[in-house]
């Protein structure tokens, strides 16, 4: 399952958003996902992807404007925290 597909699953379960609406270019605001929702999504991301989302300044999180931004952020966290070849790293 790709990062996008997993995120689509999280958003379907928690916000009843249909996967076809959750496309990389979709604006989080257009999906009615405000900053509080993004924080909640990041908690779900920690659990699903087995990563720790660092507490970053609000400015950093406001750079997450699209689903694609969120996918790229998750992918970066996974790459940093689970390098390829590390035991237990995703393949």
Blueprint of the fold:
Elements: H1 3-15, H2 35-49, H3 58-62, H4 67-81
Helix pairs in contact: 1-2
What do you see in this structure?
- The structure is a single chain.
- This protein has 91 residues and is mainly alpha-helical.
- It has a single domain, classed as ACP-like (Non-ribosomal Peptide Synthetase Peptidyl Carrier Protein, Chain A, Orthogonal Bundle).
- Helix content is 53%, strand content 0%.
- It contains 4 helices and no strands.
- It has helices spanning 3-15, 35-49, 58-62, 67-81.
- α1 (3-15) crosses α2 (35-49).
- The longest helix is centred in the middle third of the chain and has 15 residues, at 35-49.
- The protein is globular and about 35 Å long.
- The model has no long low-confidence stretch (mean pLDDT 87).
Task: Write a brief caption for the model.
This protein has 91 residues and is mainly alpha-helical. Helices cover 53% and strands 0% of the residues.
């Amino acid at each position: 399952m790709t990062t996008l597909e997993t995120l689509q699953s999280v958003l379907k379960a928690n916000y009843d958003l249909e996967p076809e609406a959750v496309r990389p270019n979709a604006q989080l605001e257009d999906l009615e996902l405000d900053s509080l929702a993004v924080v909640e999504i990041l908690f779900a991301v920690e659990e699903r992807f087995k990563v720790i989302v660092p507490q970053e300044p609000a400015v950093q999180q406001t750079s997450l404007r699209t689903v694609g931004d969120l996918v790229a952020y998750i992918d970066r966290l996974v790459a940093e925290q689970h390098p390829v070849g590390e035991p237990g790293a995703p393949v």
